[in-house]
Here is the input.
Amino acid sequence: MQTIRNQILLLGSNMSLIVRKTGKFSTFENPAVTHTFSESPRTPPAPSAPPELSELPEKPESHSIDLEQVVLSCLAEKGQIADTWEFSLAAGVDHQNLIGVIKSLMVDNYVRDEALLTSFWALTDEGKEVCCKGSPEIQVFDAVPAGGIAVGELNRLLGDVAKIGMGVCMKNKWLQKKGDLIIKAVQVVVDETRAILNHIAQGNCSASEEDLKNLKKRKLVQQITRKSYRITKGVDFREKRIKKMADLNKSMIGVKEEMPAGTHWSDLSFKAVNLKSMGAPALGGNYHPLLKVRAEFRRILMDLGFEEMPTNRWVESSFWNFDALFQPQSHPARDAHDTFFIKDPSQTILVPENYYDVVKRTHETGGFDSIGYGCNFKRDEAMKNLLRTHTTAISAQMLYNLAETMKKSGQFTPKKYFSIDRVFRNEAMDATHLCEFHQVEGFVADRNLTLGNLIGTIKTFFEKIGITQLRFKPAYNPYTEPSMEIFGYHPELKKWTEIGNSGMFRPEMLRPMGLPEDVRVIAWGLSLERPTMIKYRIENIRDLFGHKADLNKQRNAPIARF
Ligand code: PHE
Here is the structure.
């Protein structure tokens, strides 16, 4: 160890240090460990002399170094790392990485650090240029010919350098004025500025305080302060790091003698518990409003004896979404402006062929007392895949299955079905419309049902969800006749709003499935979002559902019951 004041250390090709700090500093002793970095860290260090810097691998690949083990081995061997900066240079590793490893060791008290502030002088870009080209003053001096030169000409030749160099030349009495010209006052000069800078760059000489002050003023050198650390052994130092366990678990508990060596808790070391830690904030416990309303609707419908339909698929064929519902293939809802068609796979593979034939015939020429659409029914159109535009596509399949079961058993069983699930429509989005939303759908299939049964069922359901004043308005759906829009009175908003759609499925839909003539199906559908928005006073659907909805509302909400 020796004091470092005004000592120049050479640490790399172009880096010179005039260390002017603070206390003690060791000259560069090779801090590298006694074994090469590629060696397994488990191999104990050979008791040989440390290698010279030149013996170290030139650029060891950092990932092949177990830096932590290198640090520990070095400390075991030498008791300290005198300066992490020098150590990182010698080891060919990034200083920041080294500090990271040391910080991690400090957590377990394997090592201790002591900050070192090292100030040194380095050349600025301008200083480096002077090293190459010579100082401005020498450039000016060299540009003056034997017979002298006009100032303007000198400026033209050298630009800014002329102005800077001229002053120094005059001060040094290298040049003098003679009339309008500048002439040389001496014949030979020495470029001391360049010489000093070269020395600083090479790092093998000391510069006087005076010179450094001057060079700094001329912005040719700058003082750099670097923070590094002296590392010594900590109170819990070991040559090999033992991983501390974060948790005590089942596999560490038992009769020690019966357990594999080193697995019993008493053989392990554990991380200290930080009793001051705040811990992760507990999230609030509230369901999303749509889930709450869904749960309530579900319970009501189940109480009313409805079974839930398996709606857990979003992709349907046009056949089930439209054709089976007697929706003509030319219907505007079937174009890409209203429906999201699937590109890949664009076509479905399977439809029940016998049923398909009857559906096709019913569309083209009618049957079951219908005249049909008189159209040319296209298979390509029917087979197109899409994101279902309504859950009625599932209702159709449930009714088809009901008819198939009846064909096998010879007996028709009345059924009540419901579903609450997602549907997709290619719509312009606004405060009340999204491209995807949730539909609540229900139907009852039984013999000789009437419109009165439909109105009664709907009234019962809506009463249970708190809407008691209802009005029905005739409407049109391709698959129901008659059809009714459902309006509910909102006592707070004091207005009638449309809350659903309903009807009796047409014979053109039911009969091709094979359902008996007297089996009627009453059905209705509504969105889940509309009543939820009314209930929770949400004005914009985007605050309720979709990528703009703020999930923190659920996370931060106090736990409350619906
Ligand atoms: N499918 C209709 C819609 O999407 C709802 C509905 C279902 C209407 C059943 C009548 C019968 O709006």
Notes: The pocket of phenylalanine is lined by residues 390, 392, 441, 477, 480, 501-503, 523-525 (CB under 6 Å). The two ends are 75 Å apart (CA to CA).
